[in-house]
Amino acid sequence: MSVQIHKAGGRFEDIGSYARAKRIGPFAYTAGTTALEPTGKIHAPYDAYAQTKYILMRTEEFLREVGAELRHVARVRVYLTEMSHAAGFIQAHGEVFEGIDPVLTAVTAGLTQPGLVVEIDVDAVIHSVNGDIPTT
After folding, report:
1. pLDDT in tens, the chain (136 residues)
2. Which CATH superfamily hosts domain 3-125?
3. Domain coordinates of the chain in residue numbers?
4. At CA 135, angle to CA 130 and CA 136, rounded to 5?
C-alpha cells in the first residue's frame, strides 16, 4: 500500500508536522482548510458562500495532488463560526457536490481570524465509477 502526502506551503505545516492532503492506499484525507489565500489575505471575509466555494476549489486541488477527485469524497466536515452561516455554506456545498452526495457534518467552532467563517475537511475513497476499489 502506498502513502502520498501533499504540503501546500501553509504557515503551520512544517512547524506542526502535518500535510494538507494525505493518501494511504485508496483513502485520501484533507486537513481543515479555511479561506486564507496563499498571500495571507482572507478570501471574501464573512461570506460563507464565497468562502465555501473557494475552500472546495482548493480542496479539489489538494485531492488531485494525491490522485483523488471530488467524486471520491465520502465525508465532509464543516466548521462554522455561527450556524447563521449555514445557508451560504449549504448552497455552495450543494452546487459543488451535486450528484456526489457525500455525508455531511456541520458544527460551530472558533476559527483563527475574524472574517473566517468556514473551515472544511474531507475524507475520500478512491474508487471506480461503479464503486470498485483499485487493487494497485
Report:
1. 789 999 988 778 889 999 999 999 999 999 999 999 988 899 999 999 999 999 999 999 999 999 999 999 999 999 999 999 999 999 999 999 999 999 999 999 999 999 999 999 999 999 998 889 977 5
2. RutC-like (3.30.1330.40)
3. 3-125
4. 120
Neighbours of 114 (CB within 10 A): 10
User: CA–CA separation, 54 vs 51, rounded Å?
Assistant: 5
Rounded Cα–Cα distance for residues 44 and 96 (Å): 18
Here the cell at position 34 is: 479555511
Distance CA 9, CA 11 (A): 6
